[in-house]
Amino acid sequence: MARTPAKDAESTDVVDSLSTDPVHPATGDDIEDVTGTGGRPAIVADATSGHGVVPVQTRNARFSSTDVADFPAVTGREAVWKLTPVAELQDLIDGDLDGGRYDVETTADGGASVSWVGRDDERIGTAGIPEDRAAANAWSSFEEALVVEVRGEEPSAATVRRAALGAAPRAAHTIVDAARFSKSVVVLDNAGDARLAENVEILVRDGADLTVVTVQDWDDDARHVANHFARVGRDARLKHVVVSFGGGVVRVNPSVTLAGSGADGELLGVYFADAGQHLESQVFLFHQADHTKGRVEYRGALQGEGAHTVWIGDVLIGPDATGTDSYEQNRNLVLTEGTRADSIPNLEIETGDIEGAGHASATGRFDDEQLFYLQARGIPEDQARRLVVRGFLASIVQKIGVPELQERLQEAVEAELAGEARP
After folding, report:
1. What are the residue ranges in the chain where pLDDT is below 50?
2. This prediction's pTM
3. In sequence order, what are the beta bridge partners of 302?
4. Cβ(275)–Cβ(249) below 8 Å
5. What segment(s) does the record annotate as region Disordered (predicted)?
6. CB–CB of 208/235 below 8 Å?
7. CB neighbours (10 Å) of residue 51?
């Protein structure tokens, strides 16, 4: 197994590999059973001294459970929490959550439908289960799940809009179930006030083509912690898009498993952090089956004192994922002083027979040559800067494939740059 972390650096194709079992750092002995709790490093005692700490060696080996009691208290020192303002999310991580139904606006056409189901629905838990305490708290608390079902081979669409959740801590569970050979776009649109911990399960059956867009356009003081679990079947395709513009602290973590031969996963993200905002995504793409294709691309802009973004990308190419083609990248554009962008891509490869894989990360300011080029053609500096930012983020926005949403996001970018309220 090869693990190649990188930060603020470029990495081209990676095809080297591959030791097998992890070994104890002191003794060199094989470690056959490595487990951890709550996303913390696994602790393996040295056989002679009783000491020694070995981290979980593979990304999909993290401890998981649907019971919040199985996870230790979060201190903020854990690897999965150390870049997050834990104190501002404590009620969602540890507190009592209202897991009942909530007001939701839905539209659906073609073969799409929206309904509520009980906790005994057989689909619950099939896409993935929590790996951290906040996700487990939401899972332990929800009473009913909102299900978006897609059936039939004709293109269809569904929108779920939540804009009246209120300020009380709440849990939610959503399932998006795309039947075999279906083709659909599902938009999960969030606005207003909220203190929300939720899990979203996405099932893409064999041959299906599904786009899921989650929009975080919350009020400035909203707090939102979400985990998305997706499982993509044989010759199926998932485009998953995370859009984060609003909210005080927003953490949306997608985990996508390409489980069937020929599965395709495109994970996109776009975000704009203003003063005091914390916007975070920890992305995991698991190439489990052979001849799968993965693309991860997140782009963000930051402006204002205390604007903070976190992107952690993990790609794992499993031992059976021969013929894999994978690439992940993150780009951040810093517009003012006083901002912070954490960007950490990671790549693990457990087979040497792949088409190619790589990762990249870059964070920087405006390109002076671009600004000079535009100003030399009579465009004022402030307008030139806005054009550069729009173009930088548009490469993601234009891939969403929902024209009305793309237009709305472009308007939101303009409003952010102008310091106005988002439309």
Report:
1. 1-54
2. 0.86
3. 273, 334
4. no
5. 1-40
6. no
7. 10
